[in-house]
Write a structure and sequence with these properties.
38% of the residues lie in helices and 10% in strands. The protein is α/β, with parallel strands linked by helices. The strands form four sheets. Strands 7-8-9-10 form a four-stranded parallel β-sheet. It is globular.
């Protein structure tokens, strides 16, 4: 028998405000002083959580199960009060690394029908007509934060680093303009996850054309802001339904864009996720047999093809692409490897 408890009901705004208004120290426990603290705290020590939950419904993600798809938002006042507390912290040095949530631009998108709805995703395969996908509230919050920032006696940098849902962002040029002008510190995290639309369908992610539309919108917003900024795209290797051929297509796309992912997420089946059911059963949600990357050899190959620029991966890549006549792609990879700076050891995100 398998007993699966549903996620807890989302907290009310009043309760969420009460929780985040507590006097947290933003420090590790003193017992860790002897070992130099907790390094993982530093990137999030001065970040602000604006909301919980995500209705994206990506098949590989577990947020749906431990936070739910209903968006629970803090009030603007609670968020601004936390900013006040942060700038008074003795260790604060002037940068708030992130103001966001599981998906930063879902703030305020609260669906009154969410508790009754059985859809895993409010966006896939098509956006739900009942979803209040307006950026009005998140834009209001951003403007209030900017006003707060101007009133500070010292310079305070504020960024959105938690990532955004790019298909949602396409619905509001005003949001993207605000984001690019005031809340991006040179790089913005976005998660297209793959390039092959067949794999993206299994991931329950928007197609590659949607990402390219957002890329164009962000570039225009960045130019309008008079800045030089870039997207940092995240990709997943060895997802169910993605075989070496799909990985090679993704590599070809990355090479054509001269993109060099520094971090690669190797697919890991997490409890209850839809992609885990695919991984175990070998079937897609509609019951068709799909390729399941298993074994260290293939998983290493797919991760290596994403980080094609690392010279240490060339023999592995050549062993797959060579026999399949991909000599032109191999020559491009070899040239980029020669031209690339010395690379660090691969990190798996």
């Amino acid at each position: 028998m398998i007993v699966v408890n549903p996620p807890a009901e989302p907290m009310s705004q009043k309760d969420l405000d009460l929780l985040y208004d507590q006097p947290f120290t933003r420090m590790w426990h003193p017992k860790y002083d002897k070992v130099g603290g907790i390094p993982a705290l530093k990137p999030v020590q001065f970040s602000v959580t604006t909301h919980r939950g995500c209705f994206g419904g990506c098949s590989f993600c577990a947020i749906y199960f431990h936070q739910g798809k209903q968006i629970a938002c803090r009030s603007e006042k609670s968020i601004l009060d936390e900013l006040d507390r942060i700038v008074r912290h003795p260790q604060f040095r002037g940068t708030i690394e992130d103001v966001g949530g599981p998906t930063a631009n879902m703030y305020g998108m609260v669906c009154t029908n969410a508790s009754m709805c059985k859809r895993m995703s409010c966006l896939f395969p098509k956006p739900c007509p009942k979803l209040p996908a307006s950026h009005k509230q998140v834009i209001s919050l951003m403007k209030k934060i900017l006003a707060w920032q101007k009133n500070q006696k010292r310079k305070v940098n504020i960024f959105v680093a938690s990532g955004i849902r790019h298909d949602l962002a396409l619905q509001s040029s005003e949001y993207v303009d605000l984001l690019a002008k005031h809340f991006v510190g040179g790089h913005l995290k976005v998660a297209p996850e793959h390039h092959c639309n067949t794999v993206l369908q299994l991931m329950q992610k928007p197609n590659s054309e949607t990402f390219e539309q957002f890329e164009k919108m962000f570039a225009e917003a960045t130019q309008k802001a008079g800045k030089q900024q870039y997207l940092v795209p995240y990709f997943i290797s060895a997802h169910p339904g993605s075989g070496p051929e799909e990985a090679a297509q993704l590599t070809e796309y990355l090479v054509s864009r001269n993109w060099r992912p520094r971090q690669v997420q190797d697919f890991v089946p997490v409890p209850l996720a839809l992609a885990t059911a695919m991984y175990v059963s070998g079937l897609s949600p509609n019951g068709k047999h799909i390729h399941i990357p298993k074994g260290r050899g293939e998983k290493r190959l797919q991760a290596a093809m994403l980080q094609y620029y690392d010279k240490r991966n060339f023999k592995l890549i050549e062993g797959y692409l060579g026999p399949r006549g991909k000599h032109k792609l191999l020559a491009q990879i070899r040239r980029l490897q020669i031209d690339s700076p010395k690379t660090k050891r691969r990190r798996i995100r």
